[in-house]
Write a structure and sequence with these properties.
156 residues, elongated, four-stranded mixed β-sheet
Amino acid sequence: MIVKSHKFLKYVIFFLCFTILVVVLYNIYKINESDIILSNIKQEVQQNDYVDFSKVVEGDWDNIILVTPYTDKAKIKNNYGIAVNRISDFSIAYRDDSVLIIFCKGESIQNYIYWLGSVSSSEDEKLYDSLQIKREDAQFKTSNNNVFLNLIHVKE
């Protein structure tokens, strides 16, 4: 009886250690939304009517993907070759109050934020489909319509 309980205790300890390891590795694998990036952008927007992501957002990224509401993971994978499984909160698939901005290095996700508001490709043209923008072109001016802060892509 003592031998069986000792063996059972080994299995329980192994299972607990394995579970803890899986949880830790899962949290390392997933990327959480960057509050620092969002705060830096909001601060820049409050001070200016223009924001250049390449200057405000630090880190090793070379392009951004603006993901519009109701876009699913498969569409991003098919269009841009980026697996968004590492994003811990992919609620853009059923949200319509924000835009998911993914900061990428090649096809690797570096960071992401949810921008409460909209992003337009020009003054007159609302963005209806996801868009990839190079770092040097990631410049936006702002438009405030009382509720949300809208970003308008500046094309040179």
